[in-house]
Write a structure and sequence with these properties.
Blueprint lengths: L3 E7 L6 H6 L7 E2 L5 E5 L2 E8 L2 E7 L8 H8 L6 H8 L3 H9 L10 H10 L5 H15 L2 E4 L2 E4 L4 H14 L6 H12 L13 H9 L6 H11 L10 H11 L7 H12 L3 H16 L9
Antiparallel strand pairs: 1-5, 2-3, 3-4, 4-5, 6-7
Helix pairs in contact: 4-13, 5-6, 5-8, 5-10, 7-8, 9-10, 11-13
The structure holds a DNA duplex.
Length: 297
DNA sequence: TAATAACCTCGCAA
DNA sequence: ATTGCGAGGTTAT
């Protein structure tokens, strides 16, 4: 039985834990009856409770010396990004400002690229409840079980493992027509044809080229992977919600080219396009549909 | 180059 | 309860 480790972090940067974890970037955090968020970062089970600017972090003591618990959290929530600075740079835009005012502590997460790639391949013509369900099924069936007293989570299965699982069983899990896409992505990463983790060092364009080389990954999914896991904060994913926002708020035609919104966002927000996207996205999504009750474990 | 159907299955609304 | 529609896209035609 590994010892439980607990730390308390006093936050010097804005962080709204709940909004950051429920704003469509990730699909595998759950809130328990004690109002604690339970999830997995770097194969470690993590439990988080926020009280104003204090963050209680619980996990198991790790033998991995490379990153201690506090570093892991800082990395995941991109505490190194000076959010107030970002917000000052893009807040001149009225619609972005509106989102900032509503969700001042919403941060872009820095997640595991493989998990994000699979999650967004699965997002194609789907919906958040279904994506969450399938990603959770993948983990509970093929990941490693990890527990922290009462809390139970699963690691996300490696590319090697999912490559071995194969298309047929991915279909059985409910991946649908996305099953061959996940299977071939798993193969590509497992045998090194896609240097997924090295893309953090690559340019936006280079990373885009690699990702869209995969079947089932077009510009939108590639942008999501780049923004939420590959440190490409310029990425401006244009999904149906952003399309609606661009139409309703900025006079874009409803059927415009993907490339046009990318150019527009870069001219307007530069390297902060990704943060601007997130505030626009969550703002229009929240105003169009009320937040669902959150799932409990 | 631009438009359109097909793709799996599930969640949700009626 | 049962049915029918549409869903955070991509590919093939």
């Amino acid at each position: 039985m590994t010892k439980i480790q607990q730390i308390n972090i006093e936050l010097t940067e804005p962080l709204d834990l709940t909004t950051s974890l429920t704003s469509g970037q990730c699909f595998r955090w759950r809130i328990d009856s004690e109002e604690r968020w339970v999830g997995v970062i770097e194969s470690r089970i993590i439990r988080l409770t926020q009280k104003q600017n204090f963050l209680k972090v619980e996990s198991l003591e790790s033998s991995n010396q490379s990153m201690d618990l506090e570093e892991t959290i800082y990395d995941y929530f991109r505490i190194g990004d000076d959010l107030k600075e970002v917000q000052e740079r893009i807040g001149w835009d009225t619609r972005v400002k509106y989102g900032i005012n509503k969700f001042p502590g919403m941060r872009i997460l820095r997640q595991d690229p493989w998990e994000v790639l699979v999650s967004f391949i699965l997002s194609s013509t789907s919906n958040i409840p279904r994506i969450s369900r399938t990603v959770e099924l993948l983990s509970s069936k093929y990941g490693e079980r990890i527990s922290l007293d009462q809390s139970i989570r699963y690691t996300f299965p490696s590319p090697e493992l999912l490559a071995e699982v194969g298309e047929a069983r991915l279909r059985e899990l409910g991946c649908g027509f996305r099953a061959p896409y996940v299977a071939s992505a798993a193969l590509a990463v497992a045998d090194g044809k896609l240097p997924l983790y090295e893309l953090r060092e690559s340019s936006y364009l280079e990373a885009m080229k690699h990702l869209t080389g995969l079947k089932g990954v077009g510009d939108k999914i590639a942008d999501c992977v780049m923004l939420f896991s590959l440190d490409k904060l310029r990425a401006f994913p244009n999904d149906r919600w952003i399309t609606k926002a661009l139409h309703d708020w900025y006079g874009f035609p409803l059927r415009s080219k993907y490339e046009d919104s990318r150019e527009w966002s870069w001219n307007r927000f530069g390297d902060d396009a990704g943060y601007a996207n997130q505030y626009l996205f969550w703002n229009i999504r929240q105003s169009t549909r009320p937040l669902r009750s959150t799932a409990t474990i």
